[in-house]
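Dissemination and training. As part of the outreach component of the grant, students in the summer workshop were shown how a complex can be specified as a set of sequence lines and then modelled as a single object. The example used during the hands-on session is reproduced here so that future cohorts can follow it. Participants entered these lines:
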Amino acid sequence: MAESRIRAVQAKVYIRIEALEMDGIDKNHKATWIWYPNDYELWLHVQVSMKRQFRGYICPPFWRMDTAYSNVMFRKKLKLERPESLTLSVQGAFVVHLDGSMLPMPYERKPITSVLIPAGEHELVVKVFMDTAVPALYAAGETITSDGTWEVTCHNGQWLNAGSDRFDDPASPPGAFPFAYETVHPVHVAKAKGTVLVDFGQETFGYVTFLELKGRGVIRLYYGESMEEALAGEEAETSDELEIDFTEPQSLTTPVTRAFRYVQIRADEGLTWQSVQHEYEYLPMERRGSFRCSDERINRIWEVAVRTLQLTTMEFMYDGMKRDRWVWSGDAYQSFMMNNYVFFDQAVTRRTLVALRGKDPVNMHINTIMDYTFYWFISYHDYYLHTGDLAFISSSYPNMLSLMEFCLKRRNTDGMMEGYPEDWVFIDWADMEKRGEVCAEQLLFCRSLEIMGTFAGLLGDGGNEQKFTDLAQELRSRIFELFWDEERGAFLHGRLDGKINDRILKYPSMFALRLGYLNNAQSELVARNVLLNESVQKITTPFMRYFELEALCEIGQQTHVLHEMREYWGGMLDLGATTFWEEYDPGQPAELQYDMYGDKYRKSLCHAWGAAPLYLLGKYWTGVRPEASGYSQYRVEPCLGGLEWFEGTVPTQDGEIKVFMDRSRIAVFTNAVGVGTLRFKSETYPETNEGEIRQIGSGEYELELVRPAFAYEVRIKHPISE
Amino acid sequence: MAESRIRAVQAKVYIRIEALEMDGIDKNHKATWIWYPNDYELWLHVQVSMKRQFRGYICPPFWRMDTAYSNVMFRKKLKLERPESLTLSVQGAFVVHLDGSMLPMPYERKPITSVLIPAGEHELVVKVFMDTAVPALYAAGETITSDGTWEVTCHNGQWLNAGSDRFDDPASPPGAFPFAYETVHPVHVAKAKGTVLVDFGQETFGYVTFLELKGRGVIRLYYGESMEEALAGEEAETSDELEIDFTEPQSLTTPVTRAFRYVQIRADEGLTWQSVQHEYEYLPMERRGSFRCSDERINRIWEVAVRTLQLTTMEFMYDGMKRDRWVWSGDAYQSFMMNNYVFFDQAVTRRTLVALRGKDPVNMHINTIMDYTFYWFISYHDYYLHTGDLAFISSSYPNMLSLMEFCLKRRNTDGMMEGYPEDWVFIDWADMEKRGEVCAEQLLFCRSLEIMGTFAGLLGDGGNEQKFTDLAQELRSRIFELFWDEERGAFLHGRLDGKINDRILKYPSMFALRLGYLNNAQSELVARNVLLNESVQKITTPFMRYFELEALCEIGQQTHVLHEMREYWGGMLDLGATTFWEEYDPGQPAELQYDMYGDKYRKSLCHAWGAAPLYLLGKYWTGVRPEASGYSQYRVEPCLGGLEWFEGTVPTQDGEIKVFMDRSRIAVFTNAVGVGTLRFKSETYPETNEGEIRQIGSGEYELELVRPAFAYEVRIKHPISE
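and obtained this result:
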């Protein structure tokens, strides 16, 4: 049976995408590819999670990967004034039913043509099956357009609104994420016998292309985020190997995206090429936020941090691009916060939150980490505060409920959460007791319960609003009762087997502070006894430094934090960083700077949490933050914090807020839609060009920002102490 | 970039099956492919469920299809006396860890060779990723063999014993089910202008092959279970269309399996072939059971029923082979019962039960049908009774618990189950009220609860044993209290909105009888007032006739049932049936016999439940049934039931039980392992060649069958009345 010479057709069963006749489609109607909600994101998450490699081997995540349902059914009620020609493109095998009867599609052994739907009211149903990609549908007619108003079921007894995202070409079904590409040429190429070192000038991500490549043999590419790594050859974290047999010169691009600045190329003799270039793969995002100030070191930090965040923001928010390339809830949470001050790309936030959650049943914490489950809830609240997008909250709410249900089932008899044997209680890479009731975990859990109460209320789920609010209140009381030590002015670490662990670490106190759980007196106690107390164990990881510096800013220590930024992030710049690192210890000798987890070049030199200054400068110098959903209310509380002057822009859902400040003047231009409040200090009574300044304390003032698209100016005398 | 001319290798990432060097493998150790338990079965279920077509279009099931986890991890503790060479074959990308460290595999751009594992105690871990088939592993060394003792996790915090089944060739990973094939030649070929009618002599299943096919054009095949269907052309339920362009003669086989006896072939002019044959695809099963008797019509019924069951028993127990080709819990339940009296192939039962259940979360009833959920539980109990296989019960127990939990959550305030809007309350295609509390459903639910109590007890889950047993007892009391009408000697139909529906239908009474819920007095009432009462609405569907005839046998009505068999099944034989049908109404005119669901040839002429006589003759004439798990205790209660004589064989887990009976003699040869009890009637005191006969009632006797592999003979005088 000569398979290659015959085409045995399974009559009329379409199992591939077919090209389309697009006649009669109104181009103003934007039809998009639709799918079972979240299923493209979950499928994509599986694909990208498997790109991590170690020395050429796969390095799969150690959490369950869920993917798309294979058997789904779309439906749409139609009301047609006249007959309409409907054209379909489907990823998968499919069948169409109109008003309960199968609609035979014209079939003439050529691409699908459109079918005529008669005038009148109809229910259109399309059943789709696909088990190697996301079952998806594109439908377009004169008035008919597939979009999020279509419903879909995976045959679980529920109809949901279909999901969709940026796929609107009927010939390109949802598959690999549609990135942007840019060709980048090396800034330097150094050749030696049998080896070439290529430098692209800064950290980057994507493919390497050989032009006019010819000959026969093997090319080995050793990627380096540092020159040292590229030169280390087999010791480099990532490498590729290409087998070539080209008699005519042609181009060749490497098969997998890599993160690197340098590439060492070792080619067998006889292989030649004209040049090497790089296809930079990236998510196109507008840089809506900005920050410039009197300190050039800080300006450079801001720029390098933006590149760090740009590179780690792709299909999802990744931790770092060289090694894990995984989606981690804690890392992503910090990326979301930074993203809100620079790109304000909320689509990637949504994709990331969906991917992290997976499907029911919940058997494990997100990323297996208890605290990462709670960061997921907290991220949702942040998202809502910045966007006001209740529709997304609503679509995620069932998944929130089942994840919270999982948590509630794991409470101990005192209503608190302890790690199960299979759980990872993380908090930080640091010496601490992680068994039993860890106070920091309870604080995050409590916040998650409050958020569930809030969302339940917003979505009209009164029973759960009451339930979660009550649970949160009880838990908060219990936390304070058990762990708050008024005398020592700090939270104690935890409790194990009924015995309080009275060690004082920074985590619970700084968490309580940032969650707003402390009154003024408690905040001051915590500031003095914990945050600024040199005898408390220092935080050394960038992940927790993020929250620590944030907490220090919350208690007005911007000047101190600025100094830290200049030292820590400036230190990386001094070592040549073009993106910020997973970890940095200024005390380490140069030859150990790239070492991590016991391997010489394991450290990621482009790590999302390294971009923390974006968030800190945006929130605590520019001083802009939403105070109600979607920036409907917001605060502008600028602070020089060690600078002579700065000017910053913060993006919002509906416009930007620009802030300038020096010692004598604050200028705020806002075309955000909500109501803002400018809060500032001045040694003398300030003057303004608009509105009425209110004094709210000694040397403290407020001004309502209510005129749309208006440039407010306030004359101040800035306290010298700051 | 000339893709076809280069091989851009992603270094050392194996994503396909690699051939193996099998040196040093002890062939006595049977390594098998292993996978996450149930995942091959679920993946396979998805594949086969999509084979249903209607007029060339897909016809996907209307229930959720779950599939394999893509990201799994196997582990095995090793204790090697000397170093051992381990050879791996993997379906998916993989990486090996030994004692926590990655084990680089030799990689020389050729098939995987074995790696050396040093002597001593080790933990071997293999992480596998595959999202388009079942991630699976085959490992073999001198002593190392992949099998069900390996553990596997989908990263949900639990390690389970790996699943495996009949795949033991390292070069053939688990994919399409490995069926057997046989070439079948037509018994008749009739040619007319432009068309050929081929008759394969009986209902069959598989592919059609053209030998020495040559020319250019289209061949259309119209399959017919009846000659009428094949001749109906486009009206036939299934058809194929082949595009041919062969300049040299060659063979061609159709692409999809079909169920048929006849094929009409219409070929374009210029196409020629030497002959047509058929590749019969089947599950190889030993026909361990048998039945022969004095009535040739019954003998023929038994043979045709065996073929019906053979054809519908494939990857799973299917309803019928032409149309649905789906796995339905109710249909499968009856197939299991028949299988126990003929093939005793328990692997297909296990596969079917696993496929039906899918994965968590449970959102809907099995096949969306409430009663089908209960049949699933009851099937498990039957399976256990016949096999004593507690290991399978144990591995399925978590899935039983979550399905029962789903049921328990749906009880109303009286602890009974009513259909939710998305549920299908089926029972039977018949006029009846299906809303509210349907008595028949509560009886099945009650039995399911009892079974859960039994299994919980066997598995040492004491809490649930008590819980389910209590729930079952409460429910049983409530059912009798509400629905048992002592005066009318029958169960009432149900209750809707608090109001009893006092209609008497056969279902609840016959269910209660077959579940053993009735005492002798109640059984007699039900027999007289319901089962043998001509004024009660007749059961017309073969599905429910199955249970009705069973119930009639339970009350000793074998002679009546024999008459029914001769009429109903014999009626189909008279119409030329070579397998039994989905439905048969002797009153219908011939031209409507193949009509169903409003289509002229929709009726399946090879439908599993049509084989009911296999079960009835085995259980109620031969009279063999297990009375404790795995036939450790069994009963032999033969009955002539209208026959002059019969001889039958019933397979058990560990041997066969052969029974002969005529009016003067019962002979039982048993090499089953358990303890049997022969129960029979005789007008005179019987004699035996072994053991002591006990009288248990007037003319009723018992004899213990304890001698292994012994031929017992009992002389009786059979009551003339029977």
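The first helix of chain A runs from residue 39 to 49. Students were then asked to discuss how this feature might be tested experimentally.
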